[in-house]
Every structure is written in structure tokens, then in C-alpha cells.
Amino acid sequence: MPQPTFTAPDLDSFCLLDDLGLRVTGQQIHHDRAILECRLTQDDPWCRDCGGEGAARGTVVRKLAHLPLGWWPTTLWVRVRRYRCADCARVWRQDTSTAAAPRAKLSRHAVLWALKSVVIDRMSIARVAAALASSWHTVNDAVLAAGHQLLIADPHRFDGVAVIGVDEHCWRHTGRGSRYVTVIIDLTPIREGTGPARLLDMVEGRSKKVFTTWLAACSTAFRTGIEVVAMDGFTGFKTAAAEQLPEATAVMDPFHVVALAGDALDQARQRVQRETTGHRGRSGDPLYGVRKTLRTGVDLLTLGQGAKLDRVFGSDEHVEVEATWSAYQKVVAAYRCASKPTGKQMLNEVINSLRHGVPARLVELKKLGRTLNRRAADILAYFDRPGTSNGPTEAINGRLEHLRGTALGFRNLTNYITRALLDTGGFRPLLHPHLR
């Protein structure tokens, strides 16, 4: 095995200062941070106006937060030399733009480290600011600006998108104003098996107008490339997609179809519970005791659960619950069928059976039948495009809830949208080339 080659210790290289055009000239080690005194490696003695050579006239110190070394906050004190031209009396300083942006308080490596910590490590801004010994606003402004420049503003971010999912999301639970946003998710990687879904954009409000406006603002090439739109049962999203994406196929995903059937089952159980006992469900009531068992698939029931259901359905008072439960189980079985054509046929039979002839007493089942009939084409389209589901959209909604918890809530929607894009926009592979 070849022996590794070592070089002489070099603090400039270890601290990544050589990339910034700096060299260390001194250090101070404190109990809470390290301070490195630096100078620029390149002189700048020539006047931009007359071309004469300037004379050094002292230095000024520019303080920059640098990336932490071993989670120890590190500050750079960069001594910037001042020059004065002997011919035209012009005064200037050495150029520090390689080390940091003009007027910035973080070095360029510190900004990339902060962006990496937020995007890849999912750290909060408060934790990053503590590691850099900087204020929250300083770090937040730097991260959002760098995120927009390097990642979000990428003109090719929307290229290759063929399947999108749309859903609503509650971005805050208190305060005045709109609490909901519409999230648009790229589901193409899920269909192609190349990676997880990613957040494309987030816009304020949850209506047909909001989604229509967003689609209209997108490029013609993007709208033309959309083949499938996965959504829930909200009619506004369906109408907007039909108007702006006439060639795309709308798919109502299984999660929401099963949820509709499950809600009908719960409402039927609650109604029969009140009619037969005169009160809401209580411990010891037969229907209340099987509220969770009713939602369990038939193939997953234990012997004890099956016997409990038989006892409940043995009463004539519960026949309406049994009928709704039967329809719910058929919907679940259709989606669980290994053969997609067979599953499509099974679900189509359920929809046709609820189209006519449902007794008036089964109000929940009649309502479910009307919904399924109205969206039958979208529901059955799932079986022709397996893998097209709004499930990943719901998963990203969960990630966004985690983001809000990490940040202890947001008050500014613009900041929230940017942080959400950085967290769930699929930027990790794009950020790696910028890191050392």
C-alpha cells in the first residue's frame, strides 16, 4: 500500500484562506472564539485615474465571520492597506472582493458553509448564526441571497418536468391574513425512479385563480411538457389544469380517493351512533369500539377484530354502516390489486354501483357516489399511469411542517417560501460542486 504524502503544516490552507487571497499573520485564542489576523496576498499600489504608483498610508481592519473550525467560531481581522497617489492625490484601499462581497460581514466560505448547513444539514438559522458568532438577520440575509443566486434562480430548474402535483398547505396557524399556500411539486423523479420529489414553487392562497395565474406565468415550453397533473378532490385545481394544460391528464391520487371513502364511513358511523344511542360515541358503545377496526383492510384483520365486526354488523341497527363499510373496502381492495387493469375494473364497478339505486337513507354513500362519478375519469386515470400519486406531495407537506417547527414558526411568507425551496427543492446535488 503506498504511503501517503505529507506537506508542511500550513494554516492558510487549513483555514481555506488561500482561496480568499488572504494569509494569516497572527492569532488570538479566546474561550468562545478564535480571531485570525490576516493580510491580503496581493498589493494594489497603482492608481486607477492617472496610473501613478501610490504610497502606503496605514491600514484599516475589516472584520469577517469565517466558517467555524471544529464548531469554534472564527473571526478574520483583515488588515486592508490604504494607498494615496502622489500625483493626483487619489486615495483607495486594497480590493477585498475575493474574500467577501462588498459590505458583507461573512467571508465567501462562511456564506457557502451557512447555505450548506441549511440545505444539506437542515440546521436552523439560529444554530448557524451561533456557530458563526453573527446575528440572525446577518446570516439569514446571506443565506437567502446566496440561495437565490446559486440555486433558486437557476433558469434550468424547471427543465424536464413532466409530472406535477398540486396541493394546499397551511404555512401558519396564527395571525391575520392568508394562512394557506398552494404548493407545486415535481413528481417526475418518482415516476422515472431517479430520485425523490422536489418542491417547484409555492404561491400564496389556495384557489383556482392562484393555480391558473401560476401556470399562466410559466413558459410555454414548461406547460407543453407537462403530461400529468396529480391532485386531490378540489375542483379549482382540476379546472385550472384543464384550462392551462389542455393536453395534460388529471389524476386524482389514491390517497384522497381512499380518504373520501373513509370520511363517508366515519360520518355514517357517527350518524347511526347518534340515532341509535342519542349521544356521541362513548366507551362501551359497539360502534365507537370498532371505529379504528372499520378503517382496517379486510385482509389485515385479526380473528378477534373480525369477530368484533361480525357482532356489530349482526344488529339490524347497523346495516347502514355495514353498507358504507363494504364500499370503502372495495375501494381499498381495488388500489391494492396487483394487476392494474383488474384494479381499474374493480374500482369502475364500485363507481357504477354508486351511480344509481343507492337508498336515500345512505346519505353518506350517495354523496360519495356523486363525487366519484364526477371525477371518475381522473380517478381511473391512475391505473393507466401507475406511480402517479400525490403521496410525495403530502410527504413534502410533512417536511415543511418539520421546517416550521425547526424555525419555531415564520412570520414572513417570502422568507418561508425561500426557506421551503432550499429545504425541499432538491438542491443538494447542485450545491455539492460549490463546496470544498
Structural topology:
Layout: H1 11-14, E1 22-29, E2 34-40, E3 54-69, E4 72-85, E5 91-93, H2 108-119, H3 125-132, H4 136-152, E6 163-170, E7 180-186, H5 188-192, E8 198-204, H6 208-217, H7 220-225, E9 228-231, H8 235-244, E10 249-252, H9 254-277, H10 286-289, H11 303-313, H12 319-336, H13 340-353, H14 363-374, H15 376-384, H16 391-406, H17 413-424, H18 428-431
Give the domain tally: 3
Helix percentage range: 40-55%
* Mean pLDDT metric: 90
Instruction: Report the strand count.
Output: 10
H/E topology pattern? HEEEEEHHHEEHEHHEHEHHHHHHHHHH
Give the strand content: 15-25%
Number of helices in the DSSP assignment: 18
What global shape is seen? elongated
Which labels suit this protein?
436 residues; alpha/beta; Nucleotidyltransferase, domain 5; 3 domains; five-stranded mixed beta sheet; 18 helices; 10 strands; 45% helix; 18% strand; elongated
Would you give an account of this structure?
45% of the residues lie in helices and 18% in strands. It is of the alpha/beta class and 436 residues long. The strands form 2 sheets. Strands 1, 2, 3, 4 and 5 form a 5-stranded mixed β-sheet that branches. Strands 8-7-6-9-10 form a 5-stranded mixed β-sheet, sandwiched between helices. The model has no long low-confidence stretch (mean pLDDT 90).
Characterize this entry briefly.
The chain is an alpha/beta fold and 436 residues long. The chain is built from 18 helices and ten strands. The protein has three domains: 142 residues, no CATH class; 137 residues, 2-Layer Sandwich (Nucleotidyltransferase, domain 5); 130 residues, no CATH class.
